[in-house]
Amino acid sequence: MLMSLEKFTAIRVYLPIARDAGLEAQLIALIQQSEPIGRVGTYSGLFEKTASVEGFNSMVRNDQRAAGICITTYAGSKVDAEVITQFVENVTKLHPWRQPIIEVQDVQMWINPEAGFKKVRGETVEEPEPEPKKRMIEVPADWDAEDFE
Fold this sequence. Notes:
Layout: E1 4-16, H1 23-32, E2 48-56, E3 64-76, H2 81-94, E4 102-111, E5 117-120, E6 123-126
Antiparallel strand pairs: 1-3, 1-4, 2-3, 5-6
Helix pairs in contact: 1-2
């Protein structure tokens, strides 16, 4: 199996658990509706969810801790910066914090070219997913179960 490093942009959004009120579901829906954001190989709408604890000092109180989650998604190297910027602006509109913590970082991921990618003249291009194998047997309309008793 040939694996290769491919460039992506990781977009990590930190969300508070205490003030969630459907925020996680809204963010996941936004990812799933923001193609090509969330596209990795044959996967679309891809996200990862991890637990987080955020520590910070505010103007009111120091040494605060907040339990949260981190939702990460990805954009391929060919996705325009404007598309990523628009996605992050849409996330900011959903977020309850005045200063949302959103990381946008260049990363490299191991990609299996045989799993949705192939190389054509040095460029990585997407292949369609193969049709699933049919596992059901068609039964004739005139079939009668009593014939097999």
